[in-house]
Amino acid sequence: MSLKEMSKDELELLSYTDLTEMILLEHKKSMNTPNIFHEICDLLGLSDSEYTSKIGDFYTSLTTDKRFLLLDSAEWDLKDRHVIDIVVEDDDEEDIEESDEDEELEDEESEDDEIEENYDDEDTLDDDDELDDLVVMSDDEIEGE
User: Fold this and answer.
1) Cβ density class 64-74: b for 16+ within 10 Å, e for less
2) Which pLDDT score, from 0 to 100, does residue 122 have?
3) 22 — phi, psi (to 5°)?
4) Mean pLDDT, the chain, whole residue set
5) What is the CA radius of gyration of the chain?
6) 19: buried, middle or exposed (CB in 10 Å: 19+, 13-18, 0-12)?
7) DSSP alpha helices (H): ranges in the chain?
8) Is 65 helix (H, G, I), strand (E, B) or coil?
């Protein structure tokens, strides 16, 4: 059933995105946001002030609905009409891997610098001082406690 054959009551039961899908199917071409929403407002008998106040929410609903695709021409179309090719170039992957490796090396070098700084401090204890309070106990002594 086409939109023009539907009663106003039937149209009001449909969401704006459902109406958009039907409009795009009937027109068999992509359309921009204002044209789609003008047609919806005409079908539902909405005023110009309602058009102005609701077009932002309408645009948001189109962006979140997975049925629609915003084309480079700033027009909406049904996603089913388009094939989306995902192209991954090998050069990009190598750049990503190299940058990750560079970051890891920088992290390791900064950790090494921090360790060296800790040993360079004058406040470090002598090895003998650290071991003065050390007591060696056998397993039997530990179990006896």
Assistant:
1) ebeebbeeeee
2) 53
3) -65, -40
4) 80
5) 34
6) buried
7) 8-12, 16-27, 33-44, 48-64, 90-120, 127-131, 139-144
8) coil
The structure tokens 């003065």 sit at: 132
What's this model's pTM, rounded to 2 decimal places? Answer: 0.55
* Ramachandran area for residue 135 (φ above 0: left; ψ -120 to 50: alpha; else beta): beta
Length of the chain: 145
CB-based contact 23:31 (threshold 8 Å): yes
The pLDDT of residue 142 is above 80: no
Tens digit of each residue's pLDDT (9 = 90 or more) over 39-94: 999 999 999 999 999 999 999 999 999 999 999 999 999 988 888 778 888 765 55
| Residue located via tokens 């490796």 | 101
Tell me, what amino acid is at 19?
L
- Asked if 44 contacts 12 with a C-beta cutoff of 8 angstroms, the reply is yes
